[in-house]
Amino acid sequence: MTAAAQSTPPPHPDVRAHWLATRPRLVVASAFMLFLELALIRWTGSNIVHLSYFTNFVLLGSFLGIGLGFLRVGRTTRQPYYSPITLAVLVMVVLFFPVTVDRQTEGVLYWTSLSTAGPPPWLILPVVFAAAAIVLMGPAELVGRCFPELERLEAYRYDLIGSLTGIGLFTALSFLSAPPVVWGAIAALAYAVLLRPRRVWARVALAVPSLVVVAALAAETLTAGALWSPYYKVTRSHFAEQGVPVMDIQVNGIPHQRAVPAARRLEWERQYALPYERAAAGRLGDVLIVGAGSGTDVAIALSKGAERVDAVEIDPKLRELGGTYHPDRPYDDPRVTTHVTDGRAFLERTDRKYDLILFALPDSLTLVSGASSLRLESYLFTREAMEAAREHLRPGGTFSMYNYYRESWLVDRLASTVQAAFGHKPCVDIVSETGQQAVITAGLAAADQACGAGWAGATAQTPPPSGDDRPFLYLKDRTIPQIYVITLLLILIVSVLAVRAVAGPYARMRPYADLFLLGVAFLLLETKSVTGFALLFGTTWVVNAIVFAGVLVAVLAAVEVTRRFRTPSLPAMYGVLLAGLALAWLVPNSWLLGLPVPLRAVVAVVVAFLPIFAANVVFAKRFADSADGTTAFGANLLGAMVGGCLEYLALVVGYQALLVVAGLLYLGAFALLPRSARVAG
Question: Which segment of the chain is annotated as a signal peptide (predicted)?
Fold first, then answer.
C-alpha cells in the first residue's frame, strides 16, 4: 500500500461536529442505507404492482442514488434533508395513487389478465425511480462523508459491517412479519441520529417528513388490515357466495386465492376434479400438492380419499390464513403435513414417492429480489422440474397441473415440457377458452392416464420447453421485450444527466474507469449467485437473504485479507478471478443438484464465492491506492447500476452465460488498470 493511500485527508466540517464518532456513525449510516433500500423495494412493490415484476427497477434507482451520494461528498457542506422530504412525498404519492397490475403486456410474463387502475406505468415508474435515487442519495452522502476520516480499507470494512447489520435487521423484521410502520419508525430514528438537526428550520425539515411517513404507514396498516409476509402485503375479506362462506385473499392488491369448501369448489370449477379423473389407477395414497396456499386443493385431495398429503406452500402467511379461516379446516387433518418452502427445492430434497403430484396454481406475483426476471415459481416449470416430479411418482402415479394460462401457446409449451419429461403426450383439458383455463395431466407411463380428447401436440409456433438456465416460461421469444429495452435506455440517459449535474465533469471519474467496470461485472456475478442458489436451495426469502449476506461476508473477508496480509499483485489476482469464473462455468447446476444437500452447500459456496472473493481482493487493492476514495467508490457503485441493466441479457443468453459477460468485463477492467497499479505489490 502506498504512502498516499495511508494518508488521511482533513475531516469534513459536518463530520467533525457530529456527536457520534466516525466508526459507529459509518456503521449506522451504512446499515440505514441498505435497510432503506430493501424497505423501498418491498413497500413500493406492494402498492405499485408494476414493481412486483420490476423489483430491479427500484434497485437501479437505489444504485444511482448511492453513487450520486458518494460523488456529492466534498461539493457541499449542507445536510441532506432532501432525503426525508422526498421519502415523505413518495409515501404519500404511492398511498394516494396505488396501481394494480396490467398483465396483458406481451413479454411481461403474467398468468391472467386484469385491467390497470391508477397512474399509467410511463408516469408512475419514472417518479418512483427518481424518488428512490434521491432518497438513497442522502444516506449515501452521510456514509461517504465518513470515508475521508478513515484509511480507505478501514472505511470500506465498517461500511460492509453496517450493510450486514442492515440486512440482518430487515431479515429479522421479515421473520417477525413487522408492518411497514415499523420500517418507517426505524427510518425516522436513523434520520434523527445521523442528521442531528440543531436549528429550528432543520428540526422542522426532519420532524415533519418523519411524522408524515410514520403516520401514513400506520394508517395503511390499520385501515387495510394487511398481513405482511416476506413476499407480499396480504389482505383478506369474508363474504357468502350462494350461501357458501368464502375467504377472498389479495396480495399486493391483486386477487390471488379463495378459500372455499371443497364440495362447492368441485361443483363450481371443473378443473379441480380433472386431475383425479385422469388418473387411470384411481389409487390415492400419498399426494404432494405444490402451491397449497389457503388449503382448498388440500381439502379436495382429502375429499377424494387421499391417505396422506404433503402440502407445500412458500408463503407462511397464506398457510396461516388457510389454517385459521378455511371452512373445511384441512390443515387440522392429521393426514396433512405442511412444508413452508419452495416447491422445486422440496422435490430436490425429499425421497418420498407419490401417487399424485399436483402443481395447484403455484404462480407467484413477485420476482426474486435482486434477480432481474426470476420469479418465485420460475424453477417449477422447467423441463428439469418436470423430470424431478416424474422421479417422485410411484408406479401407476400421475402428475397434474392447472391454472389460467392466458395464452394458448403457454398451454402448448407446458404440455410439450411435460411430454419431453415423461416421454409421451399428456392429457390436455381446456376447461374454459376464456383465460385459457387448462389442466395438464401425465401418468408415469402412457397407460397410467385416462385422457378425454387427445392433445394435438405443439404447433410450429410453440416455443421450446424452458430450462433451468433460462427459466422464463412466459417469455415467448429469446429476446429482451421492448418495454424493458426502452425503460433501461431511459434509465441510462437519466443517470448520465444526473451524474453530470451532481458530480460535475466526467473527467473527475475518468481515472477510475476500471473501478466502474468492476462494479458492472460484480453485479452480474452477484445475480448469477442469487439465481444459482435459488435453484439449488429454493427461491425463499430466507435463501435470498442468506445469499446476499454471504456475498457481503465474502467481500468483508477479501477486505480483511487485503488489510492484514501481503496479497499477490493485481495481475495475479485477476488471474485467480478468471480461474474462479472458469470453475463456476465448468461446474453445472445439474451436477450440484445430484449431491446430498450438505455436500451441495459446501461445493456451491466454494464455486460461487471464490470469484466473488477474488474480485473483491482486486477491488480492495485498487481502491486502497486510489487518490480520491469517494469518487472511486461512487464510480464503482454507478457501475453496479449499469450491471443491473445488463442483468436482462440473461433473458437472451441464460444465467450461465452471465459468467462469460462478467469475464469480458473483468478483462476490460484489467486493460484499463493504471500502469502504476499493475506493478504495485
Answer: none
Residue 470 lies in a domain: no
The predicted model gives 234-263 an average pLDDT of 86
Tell me, what DSSP letter sits at residue 478?
S
Backbone angles phi, psi at 193, to 5 degrees: -70, -40
The CB-side HSE value for 265 (13 A sphere, CA atoms) comes to: 25
CB atoms within 10 A of CB 435: 15
Given a contact cutoff of 8 angstroms between Cβ atoms, the answer to whether 50 and 122 are in contact is no
- Same domain as 507, residue 436: no
Do 125 and 19 sit in the same domain of this protein? Answer: yes
Burial bucket for residue 28 (CB in 10 Å: 0-12, 13-18, 19+): buried
DSSP bridge pairs for 378: none
CB atoms inside a 10 Å sphere around CB 489 = 11
Domain containing residue 142: 1-225
Report residue 292: phi and psi, to 5°: -65, -30
User: Contact 625/680 with Cβ under 8 angstroms?
Assistant: yes
230 near 544, Cβ under 8 Å? no
Q: Report the C-alpha gap between 610 and 607 in whole angstroms.
A: 6
Strands (E), 159-228: 227-228
Give residue 334's identity as a one-letter amino acid code.
P
Helices (H) and strands (E) in the chain, counts: 26, 11
Its sign, for the CA torsion 647, 652, 657, 661, is negative
pLDDT digits (tens, 9 = 90+) for 391-440: 999 999 999 999 888 788 999 999 999 999 999 999 999 887 666 789 99
pLDDT score of 516 more than 90: yes
Q: Minimal CA–CA distance to 626: which of 671, 673, 574, 659? A: 673
Same domain, 218 and 280: no
